[in-house]
Design brief:
This protein is of the alpha+beta class. 33% of the residues lie in helices and 20% in strands. Helix 3 links the parallel strand 3 and strand 4.
């Protein structure tokens, strides 16, 4: 999900600051990133709520709210105001399997439980994002996703719309991870550029401000 906005912005900042640096991106689920960093398979990782691992350091770069993705046929697509999380009590959530991003998954489940219900979840092993999104227009399932990804999905797929979740909402945190051992000069420069990117984009400001300003500005009507 990071590829749709967050990673692209970071890579652009790295290229601007380090025109002679070559970055080869690869895609992994969040649970696999700290181990890959520790093993030296990747130099730096960007993960949703990475679990602590000895030998790996992490630092938050972006906090953003989760928003609701639904098909245009779905009853909730007609809502023009923020949707209470409790409104999803009778819905089936389409999510990644827990083992691919445990903390992220648990945050969603915990928020639903605090809203008064135990969510029904559909999850597929190692699901490609396009296949997951293709299920939403039928209106049988709904999805909760970080706002930056949801905005892209709702723009790219004509049969999908995004809706804000009412307070208190659910929030996602992207963190950058790197080896705790002596790091190379290239990693240090990458981290410096990533931090600059986060600061210039106000990624760690109030996640609620991010939803209202960025999602609202992209459409004359609520997403």
């Amino acid at each position: 999900m990071a590829i749709f906005e967050t990673l692209g912005a970071i890579l652009a900042a790295v290229e601007e600051d380090n025109p002679n640096m070559t970055v080869v991106p690869s895609e992994l689920f969040s649970a696999a990133i700290p181990g890959s960093v520790l093993a030296g398979k990747v130099d730096v990782g960007l993960a949703l709520h990475p679990e602590p691992m000895r030998g790996v350091r992490s630092e938050p770069l972006r906090a953003e709210p989760l928003v609701l993705l639904v098909g245009k046929r779905h009853r909730l697509s007609a809502e023009e105001r923020e949707i209470p999380l409790a409104s999803l009590e009778s819905e089936t959530l389409l999510l990644f399997p827990r083992e691919l991003a445990p903390v992220y998954y648990d945050n969603i489940i915990a928020a639903c439980e605090q809203a008064g219900f135990q969510p029904s979840v559909t999850a597929f092993p190692d699901p490609p994002l396009p296949a997951m999104l293709a299920r939403l227009p039928a209106g049988r399932e709904v999805n909760l996703a970080p706002a930056s990804f949801a905005l892209h999905a709702a723009t790219a797929h004509l049969g999908i719309v995004a809706r804000e979740i009412a307070d208190p909402g659910i929030f996602a945190e992207w963190s950058i991870t790197w080896p705790a051992r002596a790091q190379s000069a290239a990693i240090a420069r990458f981290l410096e550029s990533a931090r600059r990117c986060a600061d210039e984009n106000n990624w760690l400001r109030s996640p609620k401000e991010t939803t209202s300003a960025e999602l609202g500005a992209s459409s004359p009507a609520p997403l």
